[in-house]
User: Fold this.
Amino acid sequence: MGFIIKNMNELDNSWYRALKFLADNTRAEIISSKERGEKDYEENVPSTKENPIEQTLKEFAYIELEKNTKWMITQRGLQQLRELEQIRHRDLTIWISGLALAISIFTLAINLGWIKFT
Assistant:
């Protein structure tokens, strides 16, 4: 039985950044940012041929670009964001648990005299 630590994959990470950006900013803030030429939206929610996250999120009904609501992100998008945040928290918890285990073993080795500092 093996123990494998697996981080969030690249797709999940890019979706997380996009959904997080859309959840943190209102439609008006995003539109004004686009009009001022700031690259925040394009960096977080790319719509290029190589990385069509905007179109993909729209197809999954995670965002609504045309509606005149306060937020671009939909309820379904918020649910996906919550699931991705749980993955990120799980990854962090695994790393912290591994570090705590290593510190505990190191401390035990010092207390039992297996490691001595002279």
